Amino acid sequence: GYKFNAERVQQVLEGVLAGTLGTSVYSPQGSALLAQSLAELLRSRAKEVVPPRYKLVCQVLLGQQAQQSLLVASRALWDPESDSFASATFSNTSLFAVATVHGVYFE
Amino acid sequence: QMIFNADEAHNIVKECIESILGKADYNHNKVNQWTAAIVEQSLTHLVKLGKTYKYIVTCAVMQRSGAGLHTANSCFWDTTTDGTCTVRWENRTMNCIVNVFAVAILL
Description:
heterodimer, A: alpha+beta, Ribosomal protein S3 C-terminal domain, three-stranded antiparallel sheet, about 35% helix, elongated, B: about 110 residues, alpha+beta, about 30% helix
């Protein structure tokens, strides 16, 4: 396929989140570093399943579980024929994570 | 060659957040329309700059509960033309994080 396959990317995101965070515990300093390395890992794994000529934006939100409410929204100005995104979430008793990858086709 | 002006984007987004969340208290029933309004208004103002960029804007609004929250991103793109800026905002009852990603297109 030559287009961004959102389902495939979502599977990759879910796999990486579960595999990396499985039993991780939230900590202020540790989690900051974890968020950054997760973003980079997700970006490189997503790149493997996305066709060439796509630029990728990968974001990770990592937070402490505290019975609080969180809503994440996004909008994009792009070409809906070629561009798309995928997202996945993960949570355990200590932390939660939201990962999103947007793929933008570059002529 | 075009370079992303992060300061300009930062100011635009900050004003959008202020105008929508400024005096509000966290309200579970309103979060949906707030995040939608923040991303849409930010996008509209960015587009008015008239630059040949595709934009991705994400917004996370969280109830303040003392819980920690980290955000990170990793991008695969052209570092000479593309850019990002993050705006963090808070008031007494909620946190808001908005990320803008600008991806250059060739016309």
